[in-house]
């Protein structure tokens, strides 16, 4: 996140300088990070790390018959193994998105400070001058949907694993691929819906 903000700011500066619009740099970075980069990049990273972990963990429990043992013991495995993971990813991703956005903006501020010695207060005022409540809300909504998707896909693939240890690997891989595909689809659909209300 920090490097993303730093590099994005550094790469954008020459283009804005050609038009004498360097003062727009903080707001440009804030718009890019909050409206697009933070929710999407955070979701993709979590799909790769968390989604595969859920798929592999539940998959290994399925092939070693731990889930079957829970069912025989009259314990509802879906409630304890699936619902908790879906809830965790749904709650976790918006928090991670906010953290990633904050860290990215700090990286951006470092680059701007090194070039222009802009005060932090001025940077914050310029950065958030073009950000609206709808921008924040849309990012949070997308992060919640992305987190829910990662939890559901990872749990589904892992819970329904077959084929022994090879099946565990396939479940982990399928969790990542399916989650990422759905995240891109959801990104397009949610943005279309939100733009309708602007």
Secondary-structure class: mainly alpha
Report the total helices.
Answer: 7
Average pLDDT score = 86
Fraction of residues in H or I helices: over 70%
- For the secondary structure, the number of strands is 0
Order of helices and strands: HHHHHHH
Largest sheet: none
The quaternary structure here is single chain
Shape: elongated
Gyration radius, rounded: 21 Å
Uncertain runs with pLDDT below 50, 5 residues or more?
none
Number of spatially distinct domains: 1
**Strand residue content:** under 5%
First and last CA, distance: 28 Å
Task: Write up what this structure looks like.
The chain is built from seven helices and no strands. 86% of the residues lie in helices and 0% in strands. α2 runs parallel beside α6. The protein has one domain.
Furnish the topology, listing elements before pairings.
Layout: H1 2-17, H2 25-63, H3 66-72, H4 77-116, H5 120-127, H6 133-159, H7 164-196
Output the keywords.
7 helices, elongated, 198 residues, 86% helix, mainly alpha
Summarize the structure.
This protein has seven helices and no strands. The chain is mainly α.
């Amino acid at each position: 996140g920090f490097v993303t903000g730093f590099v994005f700011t550094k790469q954008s500066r020459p283009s804005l300088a050609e038009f004498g619009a360097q003062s727009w740099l903080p707001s440009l970075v804030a718009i890019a990070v909050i409206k697009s980069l933070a929710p999407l990049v955070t979701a993709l990273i979590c799909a790769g790390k968390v989604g595969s972990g859920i798929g592999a963990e539940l998959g290994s429990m399925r092939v070693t018959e731990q889930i079957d043992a829970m069912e025989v013991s009259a314990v509802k495995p879906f409630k304890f193994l699936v619902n908790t993971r879906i809830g965790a990813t749904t709650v976790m991703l918006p928090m991670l998105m906010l953290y990633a956005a904050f860290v990215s903006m700090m990286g951006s501020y470092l680059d701007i400070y090194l070039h222009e010695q802009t005060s932090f207060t001025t940077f914050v005022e310029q950065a958030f001058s073009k950000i609206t409540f709808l921008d924040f809300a849309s990012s949070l909504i997308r992060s919640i949907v992305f987190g829910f998707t990662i939890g559901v896909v990872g749990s589904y693939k892992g819970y329904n694993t077959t084929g022994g240890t090879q099946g565990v690997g396939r479940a982990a891989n399928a969790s990542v691929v399916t989650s990422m595909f759905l995240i891109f689809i959801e990104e397009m659909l949610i943005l279309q819906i939100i733009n309708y209300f602007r």
